[in-house]
Amino acid sequence: MIFDSHLHLIDLSALRYPWLSGVPALNRDFSHDEYATQARRAGIEAALHMEVDVDPADIEAETSHVKAQSKQTGSLLRGAIASCRPEEADFAAYLEAQRADPFVKGFRRVLHVMPDELSEGALFRENIKRLAGTGLTFDLVVLPHQIPEAIALADLAPGVQFVLDHCGVPDIKGNSEHPWREHMAEIARRPNVVGKVSGVVAYADPGSWTVDTLRPYVEHTIQCFGWDRVVWGSDWPVCTLGGGLATWVAATHALLEGTSLDERTKLLSGNAKRLWNF
Questions:
Q1: What single DSSP character describes residue 180?
Q2: pTM of the model
Q3: Helix, strand, coil share (%) of the chain residues, nearest 5
Q4: What pLDDT, on the 0 to 100 scale, is given for residue 170?
Q5: Which of 34, 73, 196, 219 is such that its CA lies 20 to 30 A from the CA of 171?
């Protein structure tokens, strides 16, 4: 069975998502029920909700909205990675409020569409350090050329557990492996960073990718981090841009052919359950 560590739910009637206007294929509701039907067919037993970069005014509302859905009968939701703004002065108070809620398992601040200077700010970095000792993770979503910025954060906050999303967001469609390959090897040297093998089908050519297209990127990620420091995520519904949930799950199983049961279990569920205490 699979633990999905990267699920997005979209509810346009409840929350505002400014960025969706630029991605028409995703600019609609993607509900838990729609996901759950597909997920159960693919062997997914539970999921962690990943923030969807809602309007800043809706950040806390998003977590509450997802938490309410987790209480419904048959829900696959087990927790949430909440949005945050470490660059703002009120982060400390926000952190303390979220720590009181066991449903919140970590945080993410979208960085790949932001200037590099954001994560270089003194306040941003001081606030990230506040996560040390809380048991809460911080997801890093960066482009390959920004991985050095992620490395800097990991080095500045060695007591914080970071998770690198989407195999470092490689340009699979462009068949580009450098400097991504070198940067992945370097960030994996940090013991406080876990690699997330999630949704890479969205970065491949939707009309022509095969398992072998994805293989260099997924295998290099696993090789760099090792089987004890990798987790799996669907990145649904973003993965629908490259074939969908069932296709990504099938590709994952194909990529794992020849690995041991212990190795597969660690990637698909065991490491995530240990990392987020499920």
A1: H
A2: 0.98
A3: 50, 15, 35
A4: 98
A5: 34
